[in-house]
Amino acid sequence: MNETRRQVLAALADGPVGGPTLADELDVSRAAVWKHVEAIREAGFGVESDDDGYRLTSVPAYGGLAIAHGLDAPYEIEYHESLASTNTRARELADGGAGDVVVVADEQTGGRGRLDREWAAPPGGVYASILTRPTVPPSQVPLATLAAAVAVTRAAREAGVDARIKWPNDVLVAVDEPTDGSDGDGNAEYRKLAGILTEMEGEADRVSWLVVGIGANVDADDLPPTATSLRERGGADVDRRVFLQRVLEEFHDLGTDAAAVLPAWREHALTLGQRVRVETPTGEVVGEAVDIEPPGALLVETADGVVRVSAGDCEHLRPVDAS
Ligand code: BT5
Hints:
By secondary structure, this protein is α+β, with helices and mostly antiparallel strands. It folds into three domains: 3-58, Arc Repressor Mutant, subunit A (Orthogonal Bundle), CATH 1.10.10.10; 64-268, BirA Bifunctional Protein, domain 2, CATH 3.30.930; 274-319, SH3 type barrels, CATH 2.30.30. Helices cover 28% and strands 32% of the residues. It has eight helices and 14 strands. The protein has helices spanning 3-13, 19-26, 30-42, 64-68, 86-95, 141-158, 240-254, 258-268, and strands spanning 46-50, 53-58, 76-83, 101-108, 126-132, 163-166, 170-174, 190-203, 206-216, 274-280, 283-293, 297-302, 305-309, 313-319. The strands form three sheets. A seven-stranded mixed sheet has the order 3-4-5-9-8-7-6, sandwiched between helices. Strands 13-12-11-10-14 form a five-stranded antiparallel sheet, with no helix packed on it. The chain has a two-stranded antiparallel ribbon with strand order 1-2. The longest helix has 18 residues, at 141-158. The model has no long low-confidence stretch (mean pLDDT 93). It binds biotinyl-5-AMP. Biotinyl-5-AMP (BT5) is lined by residues 85-87, 108, 111-115, 117-121, 127, 129, 169, 192, 195-197, 213-215, 217, 223-224, 226-227. The site of biotinyl-5-AMP has 29 residues, from α5, β5, β8 and β9.
């Protein structure tokens, strides 16, 4: 995205500002300012102009420039109405040498989950892949997945939806939680609000690129029965643009700093304290999930002692203290 266009947009938001003033401030021609203003209008922004100059009157619901506008994180936004998969596109950009780009689509026609599973991505959801080049070893990458889960959870909570994290990458919401503020019987049914697909390339001691793909349901149409959405769970006024901006800002702030990520993850974890069954590449582990440790391993207390699980699919059985 054109940096000057972002600057023009920011100036209009602080407006009114005259075209000649803007041209001077940004060191571009008046014709260039006019072209940027026209492009901003074409992107769906409301821009009024009168004797005092240009002024921003409205921001479109979604789109590349709209997401970039007011975003407090150093990412470029590449927006598509429709893509097969934002992760696939981000990988292409990575192969071309790009970094600090977020690929966003309104819908995906070939959304991917982990292990070649499908991700349903109808129009109206948040599908975003954050491409970065962190200076960390590959072993730290699980922290980025946890950071993304925390970021989505915090943004959902800000939108009024009580989201929790299921290890390692699912954000869930209870669909039959009591509304009187009590904890209920501990057997609430949870549905999936968001999932994260992390991909990377690197050498033993250094990540080359990292793509963290986030899929979050905002609207409820055409979702699998095990899914839920922000709108369905009461976030009726959720602004998809602001939600994504908050996710990106939180993700950027957390980084891959274990001291920041793990306490935040623990705070929102649904998995800790539960009886779990984890399908790992080397077999099944059943026991109580007791903690998470860097860079993202789940500690499961089994009949044979504590087992450290780095990867796998986790199923919550029943809470340990439920009868
Ligand atoms: C995930 O996989 O949860 C990772 C999903 C990542 C999707 C994002 S969207 C942006 C970026 N571009 C991509 O192509 N992908 C990423 P996993 O843990 O394997 O869960 C997949 C399972 O979730 C499926 O087998 C379904 O059961 C379920 N599922 C599919 N679509 C869903 C949806 N929209 N909401 C909730 N659950 C869904």
